[in-house]
Design goal:
The protein has two domains: 5-12 and 36-165, no CATH class; 179-222. The protein is 16% helix and 29% strand. The protein contains four helices and ten strands. A hairpin with a 2-residue loop joins β7 and β8. It is elongated, with a radius of gyration of 20 Å.
Length: 224
């Protein structure tokens, strides 16, 4: 199995993207959700602290081509447990793609997948060939495999809890007339921007709110 240090270093060393307008904000399908926010009790506990796990990471906005080619896949890690599916894929250039829905050891030591539980780790070499390990995610893993999987699990958790990199509202510069979708799937229109404060009106209720530009990604998940 290959080490992950250089991949994580590439992610952390990425440069901050410049601000973008509504055209670079993801469209929101019905019943969609963005990154998982911290539980309220934990959020209060860490309110006065920064969460620097992904400090320096940037959103993958726009083309991700490298020399005109798609970045080569390096690692896929997929876990399916009942209705829950989690996937983290690492590509050339430090690109990390996460998809979550629903909420090196010896192969003989791995517990076979169960009917509703399966985890897959796929690692690619320079020629594009892959080594695959499939096992039951609820069973204990041999240490050589655990050493490869645990960093991916930590990366998946950190990304899904950080709206600064998973939410395209982050670093978005609002303009009057833009329409944003909130966590509860209500649509809000930008009515006024004054300095750092954004005034928004709900289109389905006689309600308005005032939010700082830097906090929009905590309330909204995209545009419609």
């Amino acid at each position: 199995m290959m080490p992950f240090a250089f991949l994580l270093a590439a992610l952390i060393a990425a440069q901050q993207e410049p601000p973008h307008d509504i055209t670079m904000v993801d469209k929101v399908p019905p019943d969609a959700a963005i990154s998982t926010p911290l539980p309220r009790s934990v959020e209060k506990q860490f309110r006065k602290y920064d969460l620097p796990e992904l400090a320096g990471a940037r959103q993958a906005l726009g083309s991700q081509l490298i020399d005109g080619q798609l970045p080569k896949p390096l690692i896929d890690y997929v876990v399916v447990a009942g209705k829950l599916t989690q996937r983290v894929s690492l590509f050339q250039g430090g690109l990390v793609v996460v998809d979550a829905s629903g909420a090196g050891g010896t192969i003989r030591q791995l517990t076979p997948p169960a009917e509703t539980r399966v985890a897959t780790l796929r690692v690619y070499d320079d020629a594009g060939a892959a080594v695959v390990r499939t096992y039951d995610p609820m069973a204990s893993m041999p240490k050589p495999l655990s050493d490869q999987v645990l960093p991916l699990q930590d990366l998946l958790r950190a990304i899904t809890q950080d709206r600064g990199v998973t939410n395209t509202i982050a670093n978005y510069q609002p303009a009057v007339g833009d329409e944003l979708v909130s966590d509860d799937n209500k649509v809000w229109r930008v009515a006024r921007v004054k300095g750092d404060v954004v005034e928004l009106h709900c289109l389905s209720a006689p309600t308005m709110m005032y939010v700082s530009k830097g906090s929009l990604n905590n309330y909204f998940i995209g545009t419609r």
